Amino acid sequence: MAGEIWVVGEPSGTSLVRVSAESATLARDLGAASGREVVGVVIAADPSAAAEELARYVPRVLANAASEAAGHALAAVVAPRLAALVDERQPGYVLLGATPDGRDVAGILSALLGWGVLVNAMAVSWTADGPSVEMSVFGGRLLTTSAFTGDHGIVTVRPNVLAAQPADQPGRVEAVESAPRAQLPVVAVVDRRSEAGAAAPIEEARIIVAGGRGVGGPEGFRLLQEIADALGGSVGATRAAVDAGWINYASQIGQTGKVVKPSLYLALGISGAIQHRVGMQTAETIVAVNRDPDAPLAEFADLYVVGDLFEVGPALLAELRARPA
Predict the structure, then answer these.
(1) Residue 232 falls in which region: left (phi positive, over 0), alpha (psi -120 to 50) or beta
(2) Residues 171 and 207 grouped into a single domain
(3) Which of 5, 131, 145, 314 is 20 to 30 Å from 37 by CA-CA measure?
(4) Do residues 64 and 56 touch, judged by C-beta distance below 8 A?
């Protein structure tokens, strides 16, 4: 149906990446505000499992089996098929997660359709003129609000800017076929590597213990790791700590790193510059320890402790270890 709001589900193995569920929740809210139907789309070698999962969030899901997606990078396979479905069914707006694959699909889809793209959305609301998209720009220093000049467009949604909420009733999955609108060169995936023994990704952690320049070095991060282990959480870091080589890039939180939404964010030795804030400000509870009472983090932390992290941290760790099992 013309004018629908589409959300593209990105498969990960046999399931759905979390930002797709978050984007679907957002699409459903926009559908309720605009009176438009919301439709999910999954294009994969075997879309069935991801499509069924996406149907927990939206009323209807189009599942397109693309055999050539097996063993190849997704964007060059998904975008031409998605463009063909858009030509056929004429939706109004398309939402995707701002993952590496999602960004690639959005770029190719924009080129094929001639549609505009608004990227890394922090929030999206519906107005009389269509979606109003809030984005972080200039390294997180400013928030802008933008809209499309026409009646269609593409939006990529940053991970962890809202919580995924299943619909009251699961939707239905409809198998569809679509020939690619264009034949693009496909890129074969020749090898996949995973970090041995790696903890769960910080963007999925319920508790994060994060450190900044005030941690002082790798030794300081060992203390943070002990606290995180005692809490059952993961360790994060600011860009300054990552650039100093104290911890790997996978732990970086902020404008140029991950966006997280934990239940508890424990910040040790972090001043709270805006570039870091945009990556963690949606945490449910923020507790900070810093020697500077005037650090920016003091303005928005739920609990701010003025003190030396190398005194507060060991004391906290001792209390955590003394808890009954």
Answers:
(1) left
(2) no
(3) 145
(4) no
CATH of the domain at 93: 3.40.50.620
Q: What is the pTM of this model?
A: 0.78
Crossing angle of the two packed helices 309-322 and 218-231, in degrees rounded to 10? 30
Output the domain CATH number for residue 310. Answer: 3.40.50.1220
Dihedral through CA 162, CA 122, CA 261, CA 48, nearest 10?
A: 50
Distance CA 238, CA 162 (A): 22
Distance CA 41, CA 133 (A): 21
Residues 302-312 pLDDT 10s: 999 999 999 99
Asked whether the beta carbons of 158 and 20 are under 8 A apart, the reply is: no
- C-alpha separations of 133 from 19, 65, 215 in Å: 17, 31, 36
Domain of 79, in residue numbers: 5-175
- Digit-coded pLDDT (tens) for 253-298: 998 888 888 999 999 999 999 889 888 988 999 999 999 999 999 9
E strands within 98-198?
117-127, 130-137, 142-146, 153-157, 172-175
